[in-house]
Structure formats: structure tokens, C-alpha cells
Amino acid sequence: MVRPRNRSDFRATDFRRSPLLVFYEVTQACGLVCTHCRACAKLEADPNELSTADSLRLIDQLSNFPDPPMLVLTGGDPLCRTDIYQLIEHATAAGLETSITPSATLLVTREAVRRLRYSGIHRMAISIDGANSETHDSVRGVTGSFARSLEILKDAQQLGLPTQVNTTLTPGNFSQIEELAKLIATFDIVLWSVFFLVPVGRAAFSGRLSAEQCEVAFERLWTQSHRQPYRIKTTEAPHYRRYSLQQERLSPSERKVPAPFRATGINDGKGVLFVGHTGEIYPSGFMPLCCGQFPQQDVVQVYQESPLLKDLRNPNRLEGKCRQCEYRTICGGSRARAYALTENPFAEEPDCAYIPAVLS
């Protein structure tokens, strides 16, 4: 068995050889109809999704990275696959720290949560996109989804399965950040992962926060990160690292909150890799630029040698104000959002209000 590495020893320079996170979209089947779904999930599974045998081969290849990544089984709804527990057990045996993001449906029974834990799942992520049922259910497209999410979190807490909460910030729930933070604090979660919307899939028709609203959200999340018992991170908002580092550099008397911050520089294709349900390999689930195909190509080789992925890891390829920004190595802007809005993965971050020092 491969022994998982110490995550505190991970450095950005390792991203040339190994990703920190690999997301495997095991299926696009799902019982929800979420308005911001990246995958445009549907009720029935794609007949061309990777077979059990190919999925096991993929897991084996991931364990061959010089630094084995954390594996996130996502979808769609991973529990729609009948072999999901076999995949989890295989990944665990291969030494991969494995998490899962099931949809809050009736498939996530108490027994299913128990089985996930004993199959070796390291963490389960549940989405909560509003501080009340009205807000959350309108996003998820199914009445009762909010109550189901809370019930699943409660079951996981009682059964000893570590959890995190995922939230996609939109103009519709932007005002509920503090309420959301307090709500999920009632559960013993490890992490709150706050997604900043990238207009892909169904989300192409959803509203996203303005650059100015992003700055306000950063301040409020930063404050909550020092009031709540769990960690808070952002997804597709690397400029939150810039905001956090700015706060760290203030003198103690000026600092809004006292705790330290450490950035990794992770970004689309830089420490992140995504394998789709039929084997396409992408920089992330939010950037539909195919850079390889499994099982025809080795996933380790694709990550290390793809020209696109190499370029995404090179800060000198950035354009506009991102290239001139003093925070470009720890931030770099969302490459997925840049591509979604400009068709150029190296364009400047569209939703960042910061003006680099050389331009101010």
C-alpha cells in the first residue's frame, strides 16, 4: 500500500509532477436539477461512462503519481453507480485519500453513510446553497433538498464520518453568508468550501457576483474564518488568497482578524486535474478544454506533459493585469472563469477588482 504523504509538506513546485487533487466524475446521472450544475446532469447514466474495470485502472494510475493525490469522487451523483463502494475500497487500498460528493437524495440513507465510512471514505461533502429551504431548494430544483442535506449531515456526524459543506455563492444567497456560517457550525464539519460561480453548463444562465461583490464576500468569509470552528476555503476564487495575504500583512492593530494564512497557488491544471465520466481529461471540471483521453493515454503522463497543462502552470503565460500582479504566483486568477468569459484560458481574471501595484 502506498502511504499518503504529509499534506503540510506539499509545495507549489510539486505541481509540475503531481496534482494535489484529482476529481473523477464517476457518472453524470443525478436525481437533482441544480441551476448551477457544471455537468448538466441527467436522470440516466451515459452508456459510455467508464466501466468498473477502467475505473479501477484509472485509480491504479493515480496511485503512480510521484506524490499520490487526494481523490474526489464526484458527478452527477456518485451513489448512482452500483460499483461505487468497490471503487472506494480500491482507492483506499491504493493509498489514495478519497472523498465523495453525493447529491442530497434518498440514495444517501443512513446505511449508505455507514457503508461509505467503512469502505474507507476520508470525507463526504454535502452542498448547502442557502440558509433556508426556500433559497436552497430553488437552486437545487427539488423541494425538500434542504431538509435532506441537513439530515445527511446529522447522520454523518452520528456515524463518525467527517464532512464538509460546499456552497456556491450567487446573488441569490450572497446576503446569507453569515447565516450560512452559523447554520453549518451546528454540525461538526471539517471544512466549508465556498464556490464562486463559473458560467459553464447550466451555470451559464445563472448570475454571478460582480468583482466588487467578490471583495465584500472575501471580507465576510475572512471574518467568519476566525469566528467558526471549521476551516473555510474558496473554489474558483484564487484571488481570495490575495485578499487574505493582504490582511496578514497589515499590522496587528489594523488587522481585522488575527489568524495566519498560507497559500498553495493551486489553480485549474495547476495542482488540480479532472477526469470526466467517459475518460476525457481536463484542467478542472470548470474548464472544458480536453488535454487527454483515458484509457488511451496514461493520466500521469497527460498531467506532466500536456502542453496546455504546462502552460497553465506557467505564470508567465498570464495576460492582462494578472501577468503584472505581484500576487500572480499564489493567485493567478480563475483560469476557468477567464476561459468561460473570453475563450482565452490565460486572460486576466474577469471578477477581480484589485489593481496591481505597478498599475496603480
UniProtKB/TrEMBL annotation:
PROSITE patterns: RADICAL_SAM (PS51918)
Keyword S-adenosyl-L-methionine attributed: yes
Statement: the UniProt record of this protein carries the keyword 4Fe-4S: yes
Sorted UniProt keywords: 4Fe-4S, Iron, Iron-sulfur, Metal-binding, S-adenosyl-L-methionine
Domain Radical SAM core intervals: 16-231
Superkingdom, taxonomy of origin: Bacteria
GO molecular function: 4 iron, 4 sulfur cluster binding; catalytic activity; metal ion binding
SMART domains recorded: Elp3
SUPFAM superfamilies per UniProt: Radical SAM enzymes
Entry-linked Gene3D superfamilies: Aldolase class I (3.20.20.70)
Cofactor(s) of this protein: [4Fe-4S] cluster
Name of the molecule in the record: Antilisterial bacteriocin subtilosin biosynthesis protein AlbA
